[in-house]
Fold this sequence. Notes:
Order of helices and strands of chain A: EHEEEHEHEHEEEEHEH
Number of domains of chain A: 1
Strand order of the largest sheet of chain A: 3-4-2-1-5-6-7-11-8
Number of strands of chain A: 11
CATH class of chain A: Alpha Beta
Largest sheet of chain A: 9 strands, mixed
Shape of chain A: globular
CATH architecture of chain A: 3-Layer(aba) Sandwich
Low-confidence stretches of chain A: none
Helix content of chain A: 25-40%
Number of helices of chain A: 6
Oligomer: homodimer
CATH superfamily of chain A: Survival protein SurE-like phosphatase/nucleotidase
Strand content of chain A: 25-35%
Structural class of chain A: alpha/beta
Amino acid sequence: MTDGPLILVTNDDGIFxxxxxxxxxxxxxxxxxxVVAPDRDKSAASHSLTMQRxxxxxxxxxxxxxxxxTPTDCVILAVGKILGETPKLVVxxxxxxxxxxxxxxxxxxxxxxxxxxxxxxxxxxxSLACEEPCDYGSAARFAGQLAGMILxxxxxxxxxxxxxxxxxxxxxxxxxxxxxxxxxxxxxxxMETRDPWGREHFWIGGGIPVWDKGExxxxxxxxxxxxxxxxxxxxxxxxxxxxxxxxxxxxxxRAGEDQS
Amino acid sequence: MTDGPLILVTNDDGIFxxxxxxxxxxxxxxxxxxVVAPDRDKSAASHSLTMQRxxxxxxxxxxxxxxxxTPTDCVILAVGKILGETPKLVVxxxxxxxxxxxxxxxxxxxxxxxxxxxxxxxxxxxSLACEEPCDYGSAARFAGQLAGMILxxxxxxxxxxxxxxxxxxxxxxxxxxxxxxxxxxxxxxxMETRDPWGREHFWIGGGIPVWDKGExxxxxxxxxxxxxxxxxxxxxxxxxxxxxxxxxxxxxxRAGEDQS
Lengths: 260, 260
């Protein structure tokens, strides 16, 4: 589409990732798509920023830019420099593999949507619970429809959507569920290997995650064949704990003094 | 201390950072301190993991280890490999400069405490609202006292503390306030510079942040001279938005079908 609302598309797998291509093509039916994405795989970059060196932007073709930074860097550069106007929507994905429970916190895909939200732009992240090579068809089509809904209805303030789609055709998907972010009940496995000189080193991030079994969680919805949509908030304050701590804890610097 | 509870200390500024040294020395009065920290500055690493290459661990002296990974990598390697037992507390810091409002999300310092919490260990992050060179005395002393309190009383489930200390002597600090995480009402400034060959590139992360003016925020407390303690939750779900979306949004794949 050469007119319509401006949509920024990014990801954490790099600008040539097939999930990004599928997403951008589908969103092109909904608005004017500009892609600004990392020039290589930046998985597990979380919300990291590049602050120790300057970033380069490369224009690959009309509406396609890569940077040598993280997904978050891409959103900042796109909105502050490349686009020339504030987009109406930021969409990040499609990630090959789910972003569920605690793992959301490591995700570059989700962090790009967090950055969009911080900049005041409705944003969502889309991940596909697949093993590569993945068929992005259903996830892309759902992302296109969700984009249209958000452009029409907006999103609650300071809130992004974390979308996880199960593998399969649209007919095979059970429906959508709005979910909470679950917990991952597992400690990351560490694999010990040796380099050619016999020195030990360690790989992290392996192992099989054991998800929270809560009925209403993101992980359970995907396991049951539903598209999971979790509204995530910029504000991480635990208000219950805030109330509890405010009442119960003394100031250790002032202990013994009058606490009035 | 050669006995007492095991305390893991880490940071995002690297193992030789003076804020880490001050923190480790103070916590040594409270328990057995082991430091596992990045071998170099990893500021703004957020909660990123190193998954594309193996990680090396270097033992520098008794109870002092560096890794070539991120703060989060350090916590995972410490708990899963180096320590040999689960620590009773994870403390991350002392960061030179505050970690307030939205900026918490970029922080490697805070993310190390998030990782500790994910692993089921009471954890907190300490930052000092200073410009370098910083005097870490008051912040270290407060961290030691807080560590003692947490070892005695525990923390609410799935919750870490983000502590920000204003500069100054203990007498100059107004007290402690339990706060919520505020918003940063500013879009990151981008500085355009050129390399020796005339090619443009961009620095991000500059500019002067404009904090949320809310009375009860982390930023306001520090501005008023208080130590701010914000309880942050692993669960980022916006439950108000979850309720709203669950009631109001149709499934676009099933629109027109019976929604019973």
